[in-house]
Amino acid sequence: MRVDLITIFPEYFSPLKLSLFGKAQEAGLVEVKIHDLRSFTIDKHKTVDDAPYGGGPGMVMSAVVWGEAIDAVLKQAKTKPVLVVPTPSGNVFNQEMAIKLASFDHLVFINGRYEGIDSRVVEHYQQSGEFSDVIEVSIGDYVLAGGEVAALVILEATSRLINGVIGNEDSVTDDSFAPGEMQNLLEGPIYTRPPSWQGLDVPEVLLSGDHAKIAQWRKDEALKRTRKFRPELQA
Ligand code: 6GU
Known about the structure:
18% strand; 31% helix; alpha/beta; 5-stranded parallel β-sheet; 2 domains; Trp Operon Repressor, Chain A; Alpha/beta knot; two-stranded antiparallel ribbon; binds 6-chloroguanine; elongated
């Protein structure tokens, strides 16, 4: 997968060098390019924003500058990419969306700050046909200062679903929210050695070696936890 990230804060994406995502890049499974939005400005102050039409607080990011940056990324594209637009006013991100994003071979993230990006940017690229899809996505019901952290969240959830990125494929299929047996169940408690710690013992059943009984116990515990924290998932 190829990922382009456009931002006024390229340093926000330095964690992508680490851990699974870093290894995925070294292994050639993911190729990431970070672009500084300011390098596409034309004035000497490198302005990326302006006051909102109609008044109101804050500043709006310029469609002109974003258009230049996005067109430059499109020129380098080998296949039609998907445009991902992190915004608190998008669809709420979930595992199903992560699975969908993991199936594409090129994602372009445009990461706005301030009050957001001039709405004509999304409208234009929805119409132009240069992207196979334009996806506006929120990571939850709260407001961040910009899209960068949301893009990191989306990329972490997405990249671990790409074949070869995770060593143990089972840990993907056993995920809470993953389609299958455990869909709509939160994962229950987990333990490793020692068998007793601070007076707390690992549940007997996990030491029994009875795999059917263990699977049933895990399902029961998952159900208990789901009823406690996320009853709406069961409905
Ligand atoms: Cl994607 N962006 C911003 N700025 N705030 C958010 C968000 C995204 N998702 C939730 N809050």
